[in-house]
Predict the structure.
Amino acid sequence: MRFWRGVKRRLRDAVAPCVFLALAGYFLWSATQGDRGLNGAGERQVALEAMKLDVARADAEKLVWERRVAAMRAQNLDRDALDERVRDRLSLSSPTDIIIMYPPGQKLF
């Protein structure tokens, strides 16, 4: 009887430190190996740099499109240049146009 009482008391006294050691071990492992731990910090830095490059590319593309849209506004639009460009792209001509044919190897532009 006395033996089992001593065993029970020692087990009861050892449960709390074991639980706290297990919790401390879990948090220590999580701090180093988890998604938000030290190993994950390096991966997040790499992802952050990649996202910064994506944002820079998107900003550059946005500026290009803003310039293109600004060129299409009525106050910036040169109607003669637009008409010439449309005819060139669509391969159309007006009856009053003078067309000079170049040989296949000699293009103007």
About this structure: The first helix runs from residue 2 to 33. The mean pLDDT is 85.
